[in-house]
Structure formats: structure tokens, C-alpha cells
Amino acid sequence: MPAVEIKPDMYWVGVNDRTTDLFEGLWPISREGVSYNSFVIKDEKTAIIDLAKAMKTDDFFGQIADITSLRDIDYCVINHVEPDHTGVLRILKEMAPDMTIVCTEKAAGLLEAYYGVHDNMKIVGDGDTLSLGKRTLQFFSTPFVHWPETMMTFEPSDGVLFSCDGFGGYGALQGTIFDDECQDQAFYERESLRYFVNIVAKFRVSVRKAIQKLADVDVRMIAPSHGLIWRAHPERIIELYQEWCDYPGTPGDLAVTLIYGSMYGNTERFMNAVAQGIAGEGLDVEIFDAARTHSSYMLPYLWTRRGVVVGAPTYEGALFPPVWEVIREARIKGVKNRQLAMFGSYGWTGGALRDLVKIVEPVKWNLVDSLEIKGGANSESIAQAAAFGRRFAVTLKEG
């Protein structure tokens, strides 16, 4: 995509990434892609805010060249040091040797560690400002959104908040960068939730503090480092992030996430009956095979839905490993206060239920029912599984 003017003399110069398989080397984005959003402000002084991953160097510098000579960049504002934001920094410094890097004190230490950069630095703190001429930039410290050095940058005259990882999301930009021109905003909202749970949910308290800090700031556009630029309804993404931050303290949506694994098909047969029982009571149930689905896609459902049903056989006296991994990841991310039911099969010994309860105890999941069946599935045990699903759904509905 060519550079896009988002306000007079203010430009998006980001790049799309549709070739990386794993964001942070962990979270799958091969289908969805991701954008690295960077911005140039031309004034008496020229500033670039946020950069891009090193793999997109040619595209990135080509975008900037459409706007200004690299040698004319006076300031590079580093909101966050993570390499998907700063990977091109060394090359940029060589091409703009007189450029001053603007960042927090903690960011300066990390820039030294990652890139050996230590000269031409301007350290800014919470509330500090930088004049570019007609425009002024103001900086807000937002630690742990999502590293400790992170800040956001605000341009008051047009009300543009360059929010870094805050209010960001997965998803390469599909022909437009703006929310009001996007034909599938629901996609970006879903991918923002997945991004939130994958990347910043563990730091939701800090996200909430950042939202509170910005409550009295006249934000009229949100320009994150990943995802859509929210110019028509910036309040929408703020409200969503606030809602997502609050989920661990709420019962969650009245719906069910069913995560299962099956070695020889018995637990899978039970799963189909359990799901039928839940759906028969009018509740939506989303089903995931833990051995074949990345936890990235399951975590948003675990984060938002009240009920969790785990279906797993006992494996070597413990919970089936692919299911164990998903539940452990949910615990790490801080999925709390869920209503839980567990079913599964076992052969010579049980143990899966005991293991599951141990994993979720720190995050206060409430086990309301369980069904462990020895051996294979038959008509009697399938009927038990359907009744189990109905009972759990009724329990959720009652409250």
C-alpha cells in the first residue's frame, strides 16, 4: 500500500506482513497477517513515530521516501523497543545520522542492549512535550502495555493518539487503513480480541490504568502499531479493550467453550453427545480439538465465555497433554472465575480430573460436574454424556 495521509502533513507509512507464520514466534498469523504501522509528521521538524520489523525494510523505506527524504528526519519516536517496532532502526540511523531518538529512560537501555544505540537520544517522561513547529507531541508513560518501557504519543491539535500496542490487533490491512472505510470491521474486532488475549491480557491491570490515564485526553483518532486506524469511532476500540480487561472479574458471557482431545475416538464420541446436550438447552458451544488447534484461537473464547467443558482421556495418570497445554496457557494469561465441567475416558487408571483441578485452582475455576468413564463408548455411556451436557448447561443458566 502507498503512504496515506491521515491528517494534513501526517502520514501512515506502515507495511503489511502476509508471510510471517508466527507473531512473536508463537502466535499463528499465516491466514490473517499483521500490519506494522508507522507514521510521519512533517512540520518545521520531521518526526517518525514507531518503525517496522526488519524483514520489511525495502517496503518500509520506500513508503517514507514517498513523503520525505530519510536524511530530513529530525526525530524518531520509539514508543516500544520490541523488534517488530524497531527492527529497521540501525539502517534508519545510518541513513539519517543526525536524527534524534525520542524514548523513555527504560527504552534507552533496551535500545543499547538490542541495537548498540546510545547516542543522539532525548529521554522523555510522563507528560513531557516536544515541539515540531506548529505541532507538539505529548508523551504518556504506559508501562506494561506491554513492556515496561512502553509509552504512547499524542498530537493534541488533531487529537491523534499513537497508541503503540495498546488498542492494536492482528490482521493485514485490506486496501484501507481506516475503520470507516473497512468492509469487514467484525474481522478486525475479532482479531483485536485474539491479539489482546495473546499479547497483553496478562498485563490487563496496566492496560486498564492506561485507559484511565487517557480518560480526560481529547482523543479523536487512535493510530496503533498493528491493525486499523480508528478515525470515525475511536471510542469503539477503547470500549472493547475496557470490556476485555474487565472479563476476569465477571461471570463471563452465557456460552460454553468445549476443549477436548481424544486418543482413540472414545472421548470424541462423548464430546459430540456432551455438545448435543449443551446445545439442546439453548446455549452456544464452541468446540476445539486441542491437538489440532493452536491455543491462540481458543484463548479468546476461554477469556469471554462463562462455561468451560474439558473433555480428555487420562494419559499416564494425568490430563491428556494437548489439553493440559491449553489449560495451562489460559491460567498464565489470567482466565479466571470460569464454571468448569470435565468428562473423559480412562483405561487402567484415572487421574485426568485430579490433574485438571490442580491446574485451575490458582485461577478459581469452579468444578461443577465431572464424568469419567472406564473403557470405550457405548450406548449407555453416550446417554450419560448427553445428560452431563444438559446438566451443565442448566447449571450455567441458573447462575
Give an overview of the whole structure.
By secondary structure, this protein is an alpha/beta fold. It has two domains: 4-248, Ribonuclease Z/Hydroxyacylglutathione hydrolase-like (Metallo-beta-lactamase, Chain A, 4-Layer Sandwich), CATH 3.60.15; 252-398, Flavodoxin domain (Rossmann fold, 3-Layer(aba) Sandwich), CATH 3.40.50.360. It is 34% helix and 25% strand. The protein contains twelve helices and 23 strands. The chain has helices at 57-65, 83-86, 89-95, 105-115, 185-200, 204-213, 234-246, 266-280, 295-304, 321-333, 352-360, 379-398; strands at 4-7, 10-12, 15-17, 22-23, 27-28, 34-36, 39-42, 46-49, 75-77, 100-103, 121-123, 129-131, 136-141, 151-155, 160-164, 221-224, 253-260, 285-289, 305-311, 314-315, 318-319, 339-346, 366-374. The strands form six sheets. The chain has a seven-stranded mixed beta sheet with strand order 1-2-7-8-9-10-11. Strand 1 and strand 2 (10-12) form a beta hairpin. Helix 5 (185-200) packs across helix 7 and helix 8 crosses helix 12 (379-398).
